[in-house]
Design goal:
alpha/beta; about 325 residues; 10 helices; two-stranded parallel ribbon; 7-stranded parallel sheet
């Protein structure tokens, strides 16, 4: 398949102020796309627009809260106007998280996670699909997560939202069978080194840090551009995501094992006050791509971590087979 040229293609990216969204804006800019960037933080968006323009791209900032219907409708209208009536690629990427026991996390926090991480994506599909159908083409890229396959204990709403996105994309593909040039693409990153763990809601009473191995978010941005050029249904970024997805498939009790490990890890963090983080307003910390969690030695340790993960998966599978065989 010949890769599509992205020069002057109209690309919308939500959650573009930091992390994966910010480096995705840079990567599409390098390929000459015309960009419409959305997030709640208008000052950070202005900075990203400037960065993309220095890379030679045309870019427009549209401050947007993906939990609001009218805001998403406005985003699509402004994007189409900027693209001379077209929207070629829409990247649903905005996301938040809340960590804590289900009963310790306020219901409003659970609801905000689902509003952003699931219904925000539904709103994106809702507002862009009429443009795709009118032009008989388009690519919708959804940033899912390792959590879409492996449930995340102590992040119940996040897991519910990410699992729900799999159903959403499958349903959309079913509706689009008569539209062969409209594609819905899912991307499943492993743990990425972004400010997400710093900025998210934290109701554990302890400081959070992402578990290793932690990958460069630019790998996700590169995968997004590749999917826009040559659409495919799914793409996993980071070998740890593939191994853990396999572990979940082989071990029905994988979430329980994960719950024990995560629960103990959370208690080892330094005590801190509970916080809603960026759930209801943009975070106060510096908006950037990297979270600063990776270390120079982590690249050396990564094969050891992956081998260890694989060993745990295989050991658990073997024990499960022995237990079932003894019944």
């Amino acid at each position: 398949m010949t890769k599509a040229r992205l020069n002057d293609a109209l690309v919308v990216i939500t959650g573009a102020s930091s992390g994966i969204g910010r480096c995705a804006a840079h990567e599409f800019a390098r390929h000459g796309a015309r960009l419409v960037l959305a997030a709640r933080d208008d000052e950070a968006l202005a900075c990203v627009v400037d960065e993309c323009q220095r890379l030679g791209a045309r870019a427009l900032a549209v401050p947007t809260d993906v939990t609001r219907n009218e805001a998403m409708e406005n985003l699509a209208e402004q994007a189409a106007a900027f693209g001379n009536g077209r929207i070629d690629i829409w990247v649903n990427n905005a996301g938040v998280g809340a960590v804590g026991c289900v009963e310790d996390t306020p219901l409003a926090a659970h609801e905000q996670v689902v509003q952003t991480d699931l219904l925000g994506y539904l709103r994106g599909a809702y507002v862009v699909m009429p443009y795709f159908k009118a032009q008989s083409s388009g690519v919708l890229i959804n940033t899912l997560s390792l959590g879409s396959w492996v449930a995340q204990p102590y992040a119940a709403a996040y897991s519910a939202a990410k699992y729900g996105l799999r159903g959403l994309t499958e349903a959309l593909r079913g509706e689009l069978v008569q539209w062969p040039d409209i594609h819905v693409c899912d991307i499943y990153p492993a743990v990425m080194d972004t400010p997400g763990f710093r900025d998210g809601g934290n109701f554990t009473g302890h400081q959070l840090s992402p578990p290793p191995p932690r990958y460069d978010p630019r790998r996700v941005a590169e995968a997004m551009v590749e999917m826009a050029q040559a659409p495919r249904a799914t793409r996993t970024v980071g070998s740890a995501a593939t191994l853990l997805r396999l572990g979940h498939f082989l071990l029905p009790g994988f979430a329980q094992i994960s719950g024990l490990v995560v629960g103990r890890a959370l208690k080892r963090g330094q005590p801190t006050q509970r916080s809603t983080g960026n759930l209801f307003q943009p975070p106060s910390g510096e908006r950037r791509i990297d979270g600063g969690w990776r270390t120079p030695a982590e690249g050396v340790r990564r094969p050891v971590v992956l081998v260890g993960t694989a060993a745990i998966v295989l050991l658990g599978w073997g024990l499960l087979r022995l237990r079932n065989g003894s019944r």
